[in-house]
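User:
Care to share a sequence and structure tokens?

Assistant:
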Amino acid sequence: MKRAISIITAAVIILSLSACKNNEASKSDWRIVSSNNLVEPEKNGMFITNTYSSLSFLDFSTMEQAPVCDDPTCMHQVDSGCTSYGKENHPFLYGDKLYYLKRSDIYQDKDIYINDTQLWQSDINGANEKLVTEFKKLDYSSYNNMVLYGDTIYMCMEYKPFDKDYNELEHAEKFVTYNLKSGKTKNYGDIVKGYVCSSDIIGVWDNKVIFRISNSKENLPYMELVEKYAKDNGVPQSEAMTAVVNEYDTIYWQFDISEKSISESMLSSPMAISKNCYYYSEEDKITYLDKDGNENIINGIIDINDAQIHDGYVYFCNHDEDNPSAYLFNEQSKEVTTLDNNYVISAISNDTVILQIIDDKNGTLSYEKKAISEIEK
């Protein structure tokens, strides 16, 4: 009986995914796609990728979750030919197709070892896969923030080679765009270089993609940095591995979408960016710019170190176990709601919160829908 229900659920979800196509308003809009943000607002649900490489979809109306596969004979198991597998890296819907990334195997190119990233396309049920394009010698992890804006995806991709003995070499982060409509790729070159460096996109503001670049203050391979810090400070390596995170320089840059140019951002360092507001901390006060460029202070929010954007709301929280705090800021009403706990919020839809619940006994994940009033302090 359970399997019959699962098949029916999968079919209903696939039909709901296929029922409506992106409209012109959404094509001019932008959104973040990453392992932490897989919401499909027009479909009233989100993709889930924490099911051992199998891609599922959670319908917010029914809270039913099912693999992206509508074959009634499929067992939905790895190596079974199930079409839900292999689509866990940045899945998103564009038009009436499902897109996702795959990382190639590491291969040798002259004196280095490297890998590629591939963009694939399939039907919404995962069938009829097709390779769309390859980003040669560039890597992209599922947790990186990709921006989908109109017909274009924007990415900070990684060139990370190893020598013939598989020792880490100096690598670089590059700003790359791909137009889903024209099929054209543009690599804008290095945005940061070094043995230990990183980059990621924060969001779009004033038609500019805002991104962060970081690199270590000393240009050494990671383990050499750890060993040097441990020796210089007389601490064990385990402590040094945590401490070296603070030995980085971080700068915020911007890609001007109209001018197709990269420059350092002159705005305050962002905590988060939504379609409506640019959030940052100013003298320990949570502040934001609105679309008119006006500066606004949010009162009633204190002791927070993280901000997450959710469809008209911002979730401000502090992950410190000794001093937890959590708030929701309604961008339309400007109201602040103090929450009774520090939650893992996966999405907010129609003023209801989709919570991720972790079972401490067996480590399994589930999802629960609650009204905001139910988690208010």
Observations:
- Confidence is low (pLDDT under 50) at residues 1-5, 21-25.
- The longest helix spans residues 2-19.
- The CA atoms of residues 107 and 113 lie 5 Å apart.
